[in-house]
């Protein structure tokens, strides 16, 4: 994380582990730094797809790694426009590309986070002209609320750098055509190429093969961002990884989990590791249970085709929630460098017990009428087979069998078509031993315990529930919330997760991307239970659309003496 | 604390706590609060206690009350006073109390004084308004000046106010309250005059069990006279008699001990209620709740995590022509030795066995006894000098006409204290108190250690101690608790920031009761938790007496600081000696 702090620091040569951040280690891509940033941002100073993150000096050890920072930029006297980056969005006409990727690229451009020379390419099968692509993109571009000035100018400039190439995903021709065009735009500069694969998983490998063979950069780096799903179980994921590695090295693969790009997930590590007050609390000695909760208040809404193949466990739990859990529970890493963090995450994942069927509850939403309106069942979705038993809700209890967390239940819950939309981590602490105020609390001492809540969405928040005296002559206790995050203080709009992740990928910062062994470990936890669910055709518990989910989740929690913090009578 | 928990909780039966073990909880809930009006007198603790005392023996009555109220084993023998009267059955008491057989008389000695007018009478009225006083009560003003009952009522009525949230019936209530106020004029050293008072009291008490509370709002030199006369001629015969005394309790170990001995000639320990109004403040009460009912603070509360603790008191005005009293005592005696030290003791004490008064006071005494007496080199004293700002000239302390021209009395002091026990060894407790400073407030600041091996150290710069966590408990002006936490500033970079925002208690619309209300009610109820026991007082004086003597003997000149400034810079050097930075005077603060 500190590594990101150094981005664009004028004259920084060393990436993450650099020694002395002398002046202003932080301002990031701010407009006033535009000048300084141009030509000497870390993009150029950084090692490419070589051994990541160690430092610029050691990067020369790796393959195909034309050390860009070996050039004049190294000594802090950068040559204007020495390198260029091309971002090719494969699957440019898709939804994600339109809604997230292009807008994120524009936002980065707006904030001067892109290098001076960059090109954006859309690649897809449909025929389209550059102009048409630009038209399509411009519809979704917005300017940040706090930076409206020059917005149209900026948009104009950005769109001028956007181009389109049509071609098949599995044929090399299209990509060699793309390569030609890219070379034109790169105009002799040191070319770095980033491919964003916004395409269905069944053509991942085809595209990677074709693109890597024909459109790799000859002298700069070539990186591929891939989106979930990364297989559907250990084997298929292992298979996918093997195939990708036929054409790419580990360092070229950027598996994106956009949840990791969220501000609050970033803040989780800051909270844990830069505040002494949490240090003694973060273990089985003080924490009674941890809850990871994700809910959406809408169903598949006619787009269940993809979802039905995967189900909520694969779609949310095995990746987003598990990733957050790993960050939450990992030991302190040696440093903030990507490999150090990912090493710790892998350790947590490998310490986790494989999930058993007994520890999982699955549910599926059914139709529900409320206030004259009726909401469809999951199986009413025309894109979903009518006999589908794919879970749209799941709750699970997982355990980490290491010294820190032995015996602490980590409860996960994820569901669609629930009564609310949210994602949060709840940490329930143990009760006060020998509580002097026990008579003020009542018989259930576990009710009045402290609770730390980290809400990722909709409104980011961090608060600690503490017991307080109600002002007055009596002695009544009440729990109040000690707010630990003051978003009001920061008027700045929070950048979208995709912005952060795209920038990281361009900079070769791998901290927030999932390494192959991480992915393997994550699948190893879930694969047996997924298989069992499917083999036994375990029927999901039905719950009404818009409800709080199946009651089975409560019984699962009760097994481990836990109460869901999000569904208590006081909320 | 548990005892007071059902006070004023207006009919709340919902787990707000109950009277000790198995005691009749239900009636207690309704004691104060409008809804409980009808039943208030019945079953309230005051009445019950009084009735218990009725069975007791004079002189030991207070201990008897204590036991009755607790209805537990007589393990709490206080300071050797005979407390063997055990009331066997609570039900008994209730039935007795239901007959309205007891009454409380509160006599404010020094009724024409400032404190009486500004604090005591209004607090009594507030208690009355909230139905916290027993059904039968009488208030007497006692002073030397001649005054009629009507004149007293006039005087009192001018300072009475109704709480913002309860304006209804205010005038009626005031009327009713004033009807119960009377005046008796007499000399402070005349037994005869107190006998007259006794006669009047008896008239009002009728045949009820009479409990009497004397509030001594008078200069310390006449404490003993009044106690002597009042206890001899106007003690209650069949109820309890208690005396509330205000600081100063002497000016050093010897004089304080002499005062205690004098008081004990006429009173037993349990009759003496030494008030420290700081202990009645809401947040000081909350401090224990915070510490002992939140697991998250438990592991933090020791030398392992806490780097230093700061207790800060400041006033933004000087003596303003009223320095006569102050000049004889100085800021150390006036603020530090009592208010700040008391808060420190509550902050630092070990977990008491229970919330009962003796258990808490035992722990406080232990902390005070573990402390190292103050050394001269660990103290900085100051005195304000005049200062002109924006055309206004503020006077120096010695410009005050009531202060001798060459006075060396400190109006500011900073001190570093240490508690030599397992929990706090090596942790500096810094105190600072001053008049005529730039701001007004009282707060506790707890600075935590820096994160060992901080991963984010490069985001912090070289001084890791500047970005540590800090817990701030502000007692006044706006009560608040907040925790400074490092967070990431939203955005693509990695900038950290320390939050300083404030958690107040805006959720509670109820007005916070004045410290005097709580303390008066406690005294009426015999709850001693917030009053200072004799051995506590001794221990407190022992810490400060050698230093005070040395300051006076060596005639150490205070460092002068301008009126309205941040105090003498010497305080910074004192802090620096122990590697501390004052949390209230950092550059990030506005002013």
Show the helix and strand layout:
The complex is a heterodimer of chains A (571) and B (591).
Chain A: H1 2-6, H2 34-37, H3 42-45, E1 83-90, H4 95-110, E2 118-124, H5 130-138, H6 151-160, E3 162-166, H7 172-186, E4 190-197, H8 204-214, E5 222-226, H9 234-247, E6 253-256, H10 263-274, E7 287-295, H11 304-329, H12 338-351, E8 360-366, E9 368-370, E10 373-375, E11 393-398, E12 410-415, E13 422-429, H13 438-441, E14 451-457, E15 461-469, E16 477-483, H14 497-507, E17 513-514, H15 516-535, E18 541-544, H16 552-559
Parallel strand pairs in A: 1-2, 1-4, 2-3, 4-5, 5-6, 7-12, 8-18
Antiparallel strand pairs in A: 6-17, 7-13, 8-11, 9-10, 11-12, 13-14, 14-15, 15-16
Helix pairs in contact in A: 4-14, 7-8, 8-9, 9-15, 11-12, 11-15, 12-15
Chain B: H1 25-29, H2 37-40, H3 45-55, H4 61-70, H5 90-98, E1 102-109, H6 114-129, E2 137-143, H7 149-159, H8 170-179, E3 181-185, H9 191-205, E4 209-216, H10 223-234, E5 241-245, H11 253-266, E6 272-275, H12 282-293, E7 306-314, H13 323-348, H14 357-370, E8 379-385, E9 387-389, E10 392-394, E11 412-417, E12 429-434, E13 441-448, H15 457-460, E14 470-476, E15 480-484, E16 486-488, E17 496-498, H16 515-525, E18 531-532, H17 534-553, E19 559-562, H18 570-577
Parallel strand pairs in B: 1-2, 1-4, 2-3, 4-5, 5-6, 7-12, 8-19
Antiparallel strand pairs in B: 6-18, 7-13, 8-11, 9-10, 11-12, 13-14, 14-15, 16-17
């Amino acid at each position: 994380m500190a590594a990101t702090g150094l981005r664009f620091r004028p004259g920084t040569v060393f990436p993450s582990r650099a020694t002395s951040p002398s002046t202003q280690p932080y301002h990031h891509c701010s407009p006033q730094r535009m000048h300084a940033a141009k030509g000497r941002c870390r993009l150029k100073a950084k090692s490419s797809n070589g051994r990541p993150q160690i430092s610029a000096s050691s990067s020369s050890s790796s393959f195909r790694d034309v050390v860009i920072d070996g050039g004049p930029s190294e000594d802090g006297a950068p040559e204007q426009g020495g390198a260029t980056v091309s971002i090719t969005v494969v699957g440019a006409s898709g939804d994600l590309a339109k809604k997230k990727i292009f807008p994120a690229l524009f936002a980065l451009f707006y904030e001067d986070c892109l290098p001076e020379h960059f090109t954006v390419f859309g690649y897809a099968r449909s025929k389209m002209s550059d102009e048409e692509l630009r038209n399509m993109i411009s519809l979704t571009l917005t300017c940040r609320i706090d930076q409206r000035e020059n917005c149209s100018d900026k948009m104009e400039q950005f769109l001028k750098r956007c181009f389109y190439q049509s071609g098949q995903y599995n044929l090399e021709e299209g990509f060699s055509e793309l390569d030609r065009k890219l070379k034109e735009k790169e105009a002799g500069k040191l070319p770095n190429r980033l491919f964003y694969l916004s395409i269905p998983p069944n053509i991942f490998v085809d595209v990677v093969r074709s693109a890597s063979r024909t459109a790799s950069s000859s002298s700069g780096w070539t990186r591929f961002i891939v989106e979930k799903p990364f297989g559907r179980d250990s084997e298929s994921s292992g298979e996918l990884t093997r195939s990708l590695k036929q054409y790419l090295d580990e360092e070229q693969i950027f598996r994106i989990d956009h949840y990791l790009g969220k501000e609050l997930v970033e803040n989780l590590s800051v909270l844990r590791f830069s505040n002494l007050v949490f240090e003694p609390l973060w273990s089985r000695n003080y924490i009674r249970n941890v809850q990871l909760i994700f809910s959406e208040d809408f169903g598949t809404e006619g787009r269940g085709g993809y979802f039905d193949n995967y189900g909520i466990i694969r779609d949310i739990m095995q990746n987003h929630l598990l990733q957050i859990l790993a960050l939450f529970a990992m030991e302190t890493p040696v440093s903030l460098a990507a490999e150090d963090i990912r090493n710790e995450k892998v350790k947590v994942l490998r310490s986790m017990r494989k999930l058993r069927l007994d520890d999982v509850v699955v549910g599926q939403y059914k139709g529900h009428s409320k206030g004259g309106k009726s909401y469809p069942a999951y199986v009413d979705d025309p894109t979903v087979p009518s006999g589908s038993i794919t879970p749209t809700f799941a709750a699970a209890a997982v355990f980490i069998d290491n010294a820190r967390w032995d015996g602490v239940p980590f409860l996960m819950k994820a569901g669609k078509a629930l009564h609310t939309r949210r994602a949060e981590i709840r940490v329930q602490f143990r009760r006060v031993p020998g509580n002097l105020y026990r008579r003020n609390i009542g018989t259930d001492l576990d009710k009045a315990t402290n609770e730390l809540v980290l809400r990722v969405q909709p409104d980011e928040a961090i608060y600690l529930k503490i017991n307080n005296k109600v002002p007055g002559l009596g002695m009544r206790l009440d729990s109040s919330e000690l707010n630990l995050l003051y978003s009001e203080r920061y008027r700045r709009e929070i950048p979208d997760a995709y912005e952060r992740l795209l920038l990281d990928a361009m900079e070769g910062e791998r901290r927030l991307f999932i390494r192959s062994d991480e992915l393997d470990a994550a699948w190893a936890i879930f694969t047996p239970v997924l298989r069992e669910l499917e083999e036994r055709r375990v029927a999901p518990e039905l719950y009404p659309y818009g409800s709080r989910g199946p009651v089975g989740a409560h019984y699962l929690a009760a097994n481990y003496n836990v109460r869901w913090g999000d569904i208590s009578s006081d909320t | 604390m548990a005892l007071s928990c059902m006070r004023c909780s207006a009919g709340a039966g919902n787990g707000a706590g109950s009277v000790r073990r198995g005691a009749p909880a239900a009636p207690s809930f309704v004691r104060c609060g409008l809804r409980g009006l009808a039943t208030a007198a019945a079953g309230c603790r005051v009445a019950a206690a009084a009735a218990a005392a009725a069975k007791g023996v004079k002189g030991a009555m207070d201990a008897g009350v204590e036991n009755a109220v607790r209805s537990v084993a007589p393990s709490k023998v206080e300071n050797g006073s005979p407390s063997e009267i055990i009331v066997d059955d609570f039900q008994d008491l209730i039935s007795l109390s239901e007959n309205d057989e007891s009454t409380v008389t509160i006599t404010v000695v020094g009724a024409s004084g400032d404190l009486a007018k500004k604090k005591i009478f209004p607090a009594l009225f507030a208690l009355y308004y909230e139905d916290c006083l027993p059904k039968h009560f009488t208030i007497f003003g006692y002073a030397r000046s001649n005054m009629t009952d009507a004149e007293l009522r006039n005087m009192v009525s001018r300072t009475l106010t109704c709480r913002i949230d309860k304006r209804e019936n205010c005038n009626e209530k005031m009327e009713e309250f004033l009807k119960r106020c009377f005046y008796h004029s007499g000399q402070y050293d005349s037994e005869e005059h107190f006998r007259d008072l006794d006669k009047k009291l008896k008239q009002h008490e009728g045949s009820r069990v009479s409990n009497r509370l004397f509030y001594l709002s008078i200069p310390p030199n006449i404490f003993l006279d009044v106690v002597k006369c009042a206890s001899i001629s106007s003690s209650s015969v069949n109820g309890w008699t208690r005396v509330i005394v205000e600081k100063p309790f002497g000016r050093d170990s010897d004089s304080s001990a002499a005062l205690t001995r004098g008081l004990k000639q006429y009173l037993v320990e349990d009759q003496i209620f030494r008030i420290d109004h700081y202990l009645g403040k809401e947040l000081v009460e909350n401090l224990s709740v915070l510490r002992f009912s939140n697991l998250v603070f438990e592991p933090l509360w020791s030398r392992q995590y806490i780097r230093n603790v700061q207790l800060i008191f400041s006033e933004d005005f000087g003596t303003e022509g009223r320095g006569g009293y102050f000049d004889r005592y100085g800021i150390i005696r006036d603020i530090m030795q009592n208010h700040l030290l008391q808060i420190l003791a509550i902050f630092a004490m070990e977990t008491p066995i229970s919330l009962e008064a003796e258990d808490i006071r035992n722990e406080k005494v232990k902390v005070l006894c573990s402390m190292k007496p103050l050394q001269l080199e660990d103290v900085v004293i100051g005195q304000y000098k005049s200062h002109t700002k924006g055309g206004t000239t503020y006077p120096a302390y010695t410009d005050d006409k009531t202060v001798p021209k060459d006075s060396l009395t400190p109006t500011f002091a900073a001190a570093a204290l240490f508690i030599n026990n397992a929990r706090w060894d090596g942790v500096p407790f810094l105190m600072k108190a001053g008049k005529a400073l730039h701001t007004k407030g009282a707060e506790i600041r707890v600075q935590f250690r820096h994160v060992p091996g901080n991963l984010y150290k490069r985001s912090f710069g070289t001084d890791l101690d500047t970005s540590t966590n800090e817990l701030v408990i502000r007692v006044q002006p706006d009560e608040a608790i907040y925790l400074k936490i490092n967070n990431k500033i939203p955005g693509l970079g990695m900038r950290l920031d320390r939050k300083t925002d404030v958690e107040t208690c805006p959720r509670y619309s109820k007005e916070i009761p004045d410290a005097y209300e709580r303390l008066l009610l406690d005294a009426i109820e015999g709850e001693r938790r917030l009053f200072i026991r004799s051995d506590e007082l001794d221990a407190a004086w022992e810490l400060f007496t050698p230093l005070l003597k040395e300051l006076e003997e060596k005639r150490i000149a205070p460092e002068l600081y301008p009126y309205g400034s941040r105090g003498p810079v010497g305080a910074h050097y004192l802090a620096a000696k122990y590697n501390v930075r004052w949390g209230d005077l950092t550059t990030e603060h506005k002013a």
